[in-house]
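Changelog-linked ticket: S-adenosylmethionine example.
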Amino acid sequence: MIDERNYTRLRSIIRSRTGIDIVCYSRSFITRRLEFRMNACNIKDYDDYLRLLEHSDEVKVFTAHLSINVTEFFRDPDVFARFADLLKDYDNARIWSVGCASGEEPYTIAIIAKENGIRCSVLASDINRDAIERAKNGLYSFKSIRNVPKDTLARYFVMTDGGYLVRRDVKDMVTFEIRDVTGSMPTGSFDFIFCRNMLIYMDAQSKETIIGNICNALKRHGYLILGKSEYVNYPAVLSCIDNKTKIYRKSV
Ligand SMILES: C[S@@+](CC[C@H](N)C(=O)[O-])C[C@H]1O[C@@H](n2cnc3c(N)ncnc32)[C@H](O)[C@@H]1O
């Protein structure tokens, strides 16, 4: 595990060169990522690697590896099936996809709303600038769309030489922005907040701060949807309505 001196130096280099504060990530996650990149660069010594981070574009590669952007359309289809049921109670829903990566999750939400004839606006945010650029382009490979039912694919995507392009009317429902969820929150409040597969990389204290912030941004009786291997323990405010799909409801 990285020691205190190297960790403090690493944190300060990343913050001064990229503006990202790594304090929210667990030490073991940071150590695993560091060792992965050191191996890739054939470097054995922390000091040598920190020097490289300080003076080269390796800092961009390292931070890109911190924000693991793995995602796909209709990831965990049973979660989206349950979401579609809950959404039917709304005429006009406001939804936030926190840690949206390259956009597959917020576009899936928009497609489901369209399929069910429900108006909705989706705010989609991520700390990773490149992921947000890819999301805005809305162009995806076959791997990303493999869970999309064939008829849905035909309705909401245009096939191009470069891949599957999300149609304009779906794109118009989603607003993308770069945002660090440990910092300031968006204005207004939301009926649904998706925060999936991001908290697993966070330390306990950051996780608690993020969940507190998210609870403030949820409307009364709004829903929080976590990743399948994630959970929160906040019984005074959030009750789990389905342990399999990790959907919570704000009770106050
Ligand atoms: C594994 S992806 C999850 C994508 C999508 N939510 C899903 O479940 O398919 C995790 C995303 O969280 C983002 N992330 C990590 N730390 C973040 C932070 N502090 N603020 C906002 N986004 C963050 C990463 O950049 C990454 O795109």
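Closing comment: Example verified and attached. The chain has a mean pLDDT of 93. The first helix runs from residue 4 to 18.
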